Amino acid sequence: MLVSMSQLVSPPGWPAAVRPPDAPRWEETAVTWLLDRCPPEFRSYPVLRRHAVVLARFAVLHVEGCQTAVRRGLSEARAALRDVTDPDTVEAAVETWHAEAARLMAERRAVGLVEEALQGRRFVARL
User: Fold this and answer.
1) How many CB atoms lie within 10 A of CB 30?
2) How far apart are CA 50 and CA 110, in angstroms?
3) Angstrom distance (rounded) from CA 109 to CA 5
4) Helix crossing, 52-81 with 26-37: angle to 10°?
5) Distance between CA 100 and CA 43 in Å, rounded?
6) In angstroms, what CA-CA distances link 112 with 4, 16, 39, 97?
7) What is the pLDDT of residue 3?
8) Are the C-beta atoms of residues 93 and 123 closer than 8 Å to each other?
9) Is residue 126 scored above 90 in pLDDT?
């Protein structure tokens, strides 16, 4: 199937390192990017390297697990740290959790979009 470059659409939040769906070698770029989102051990599982859509599901669940950990970290930070460090450090830790939460929100959107594309969804340009 021939697809002109003008028909290739990446939605907002699509990772810059992944070519748009249907571009040459786009799935290869998706696999490389997804593996970089996951723990290094995931590279040793043949099924994840051979089946991009399975890897994408693993990546989505991994990022969601990280989001759960960040929510827990935020909820416990002040109580867990107040007796072991000074108040300024506690507040810096809380701000770090907030920054990580924002980063993971964007990452969750990106891995979700790649997963949808690997499952066959194509995106259309909007004005």
Assistant:
1) 25
2) 21
3) 24
4) 30
5) 24
6) 25, 14, 17, 22
7) 46
8) no
9) no
